[in-house]
Amino acid sequence: MRLSGSPAGYGLKRALASGATALALAAPALAQSPGPPTPAAGPDGLPPGAIYLDADHGGRDASGAIIAAGDVERALLRVDGRTLRARSLTYDPASGLGSAEGEVELIDSDGAAVYASRVELEGGLQAGVAVDFATRLANGASLMAATAVRRSPTVNELSYALFSPCPLCAGEGKVAMPVISVSAEQVVQDEVRRAIVYRNAVFRVKDVPVFWLPVFAHPDPTVERASGFLTPSINYDRGGRGLSVETPYLFVVSPSEDWLISPQINSEIAPLLNLQWRRRFADGVVVARGGYTYERNFGDFDLDGDGRIERDVRFGPQDNRSYLLAYGAFDPDGPWRWGFTAERTSDKTLFDRYDIETPYQDNGLYYGDQRRLISQLYAERQTERSYLSVAAFALQSLRVRAFGADAFGNETPALNEFEDDGALPLVGPLVEGRWEPAGPVLGGRLRLQASAAALYRDVYVGAPVLRPETAALPAGASGVDSRRLAGRLDWRRVIITGGARIEPFVDLRADLYDLGDLPAPLAGAAERGAQLSRYRTTVGVDLSYPLIRRFASGADVILEPMAQLSISNDPELDPRIPVEDAQTLELDASGLFRIDRFAGHDLLEGGARLTVGLQATGDLGDGRSASLFIGRSLRDDRQTAFRVIAADPAAPTATQLHDPTGLADEASDWVVQAEFEPADAVRGWAHATVDDSGEIRRAEAVVDARWGARNLASVIYLVDRTNPFDPPARPTVAEARQNYEFVQASGQQFLRGPWGVAGAGIYDVQRDLFTRSEIGLLYDDGCVRFEIGYRKDNTRVRPSGPSEGAYVRLTLATFGATR
Question: Residue 217 — φ and ψ, nearest 5°?
Fold first, then answer.
């Protein structure tokens, strides 16, 4: 029987359909005068108040209530987006009251489902009383009870209930006891306070009682965040903090503000109090993290200077130790937005000693790289054709100053020397801007760019900031200050003819420098300052000609030869100009064809250059693909200004020059880059620069693999051999050029059901040592993830030396995770 209708009036029409009686309740609209327009239908096709019934038997009783039952399939009733299924049901459309019995399933308009053996219905198909109640919440959590009663429009009460963040169904209609659950004699859900309160709560692991509380409460799972304790973090650091327990508590002030109070309690040293404040405004957000303790130094130290290291000691007076990591970002209506970061710490090893989570983050317009903190204030203006940014910032370095083989303390990292913050520049202002006209100019795209920067240093820094021929450290010299103003015009046009892509371009650039506090041999004047200017004009063309071949198997192969020819005047790289923003260069497939392959403005290329490359791409279908790029650049003359100082171990007082960029000679290094995906579950990427002898100077490779449902592994390889010499035992920053070779791997393998193993490690090939490693036992059933294992940290920055001990991580669905 199928029945549908409208509350405006009910007519009765009987027919026979597929052996079942079909009943339709419809308003006699044809016999009435025209009325108001029919309300729009909902997502299920029914207008508001309309009723749909599908049952084997159905009709109405004397009061007009609908009565239905199902023999083979359950009877189905739908109204106002809610669906009720049961073996038998009654429903009064006038009052909205009714009942249902036998395999009852009530589905709300948002998809939330309630299951019971019997329910009493309130207005609008809402369960008032349910027997053998069970429900699956939107986030996957499950809730069951012997009875459930709706005491008021906002309060639900459950008797003899069980709650679990995990699903209870094990498949094929069977019920499985979850790993984690909470049972209670009484559970009250307050929809106004959005909280669930348990009385006589018993915490169970696989139905085994492990903990009891007379009263327990947690937020309703529909709540995004609410005040309360979060999952604690437990670690053990042998020789340092000892047993360490961090117990976070979230205090929600309002929907737009909260505090996270997270004290770290340590068995061997004083506690560290961590705080976090978050506030969202109408047009932005502010987040501030900080920590404080009052403690002595601890670790491995040579206390009396006799060369003997005392292990696991606390020494020196107690002192205030703290950190601050804050940022704000505001994006009001209009083209402007602004923000700030404030990052500082009292101790250069505080994050390492107290295992502070993710202290180095990218939150502002400019980023402090690994082990450097940045405090900045910035503003941006962006439209469809223009961009402008103004910023000022200062840096704090937590890096070890010396990188040589003997530069780190051989006995203890506590003897390491760190970068002097005075050697890092104070930048302000730093201005970047560009503008493009609305339409084409001479048939191409025109872009105007300008920049300005002012940098101030307290401590003198030679190479790589100053050129090798001017980088000798003068006694008592102060830091070199620099101010720069740069302008640029870039025009480019794309012409496609006969399948070839031709892009002629013109690039004009001019720079002005004002230098102060130069060492006397460089300044050439009593005031020790200099005003310098330079310009560069470049004309050239980019060429490419893609070729495609399709095979009968469905595979596609694309070959794309490409070339760039450019001619520039000599930019006259004055050795007095500091190199502040162009100290690093990574030659790759995208950057090889840039006019300026150095980042920033201080270094630029000139002369005649020819750059060539070949890109080959194969798509084999079924998700399998591969690509390979090979290219290099040729110039008319060497560029010695790109070389830097490298110490010669055979003559510690002498220095030699080497080329870390691969661009100083007439022929650059070869650039080789590949991507491959031989199967849906395996993908990889590799990049390398290779010299003419075939030796790899710098390389990076990544391979990710997945197999089975949840098994995975990742391997990363990094190598840098650009420095042919080793630095001296105690190098300066100018000489701190260190080659490296690392392998990083991580993965997890499930062995039986939810049980498996997981591990990760970083291996230093040069030192033949795992700098960081961990391995542990893993349990993950999709609801609970639990890891227990052993980890070791041999990072040489830690003043307390290697750190090792057990770790425990727990992740609960709906409840959060530990680290």
Answer: -140, 150
CA atoms of 671 and 562, how far apart (whole Å): 14
DSSP lists the bridge partners of residue 756 as 750, 778
Per-residue pLDDT of 228-255, as tens digits, reads 888 788 888 776 788 899 989 999 899 8
CB within 8 A of 44, min separation 6: which ones? 52, 78, 81
Cα-Cα end-to-end distance for the chain? 57
CA distance 77 to 85: 7
* Helix (H) / strand (E) containing 520: helix 520-523
- The H or E element spanning position 522 is helix 520-523
CA 556, CA 626: separation in Å to the nearest integer?
Answer: 11
Q: Over range 611-621, report the average pLDDT.
A: 93
**What is the reported pLDDT for 600?**
83
Tokens of 282: 């109408």
Q: How does pLDDT run across 517-547, given as a tens digit for each residue?
A: 887 666 555 557 888 999 999 999 999 999 9
pLDDT for res 607: 92
- What the block records as the tokens of 132 is 């053998």
Please give the pLDDT value at position 646: 65
Taking a C-beta distance cutoff of 8 angstroms, is the pair 99, 90 a contact? Answer: yes
Contact 741, 765 (CB under 8 A): yes
Could you tell me where the beta strands, DSSP code E, fall in 436-480?
445-456
Closest by CA to 365, choosing from 405, 338, 346, is: 338
Q: Retrieve residue 36's tokens.
A: 């108001």
Contact 469, 462 (CB under 8 A): no
Q: Please give the single-letter amino acid code of residue 198.
A: Y
**DSSP output for 758-773:** EEEEEEETTTTEEEEE
d(CA 593, CA 766): 33
Task: Please tell me the pTM assigned to this model.
Answer: 0.75
Query: Are the C-beta atoms of 606 and 569 separated by less than 8 Å?
Result: yes
User: 307-320, pLDDT tens digit by residue?
Assistant: 666 777 777 788 99
Q: Six-digit token pair at 501?
A: 């892509």
Q: How far, in Å, CA of 5 to CA of 304, rounded? A: 94
Residue 426 corresponds to which tokens in the numbers above?
């104070």
Asked if 204 and 181 count as a contact pair (C-beta separation under 8 A), the reply is: yes
- pLDDT at position 169 is 59
Q: How many whole angstroms separate alpha carbon 140 and alpha carbon 142?
A: 7
Helix (H/G/I), strand (E/B), else coil: 410: coil
Cα–Cα distance, 271 to 287 (Å, whole number): 23
Q: What are phi and psi of 807, to 5 degrees?
A: -135, 150
Provide the b/e sequence for 386-396 (b: ≥16 CB within 10 Å): eebbbbebbbb
Cα dist from 657 to 225, 603, 642, 664, 723, whole Å = 58, 17, 10, 11, 9
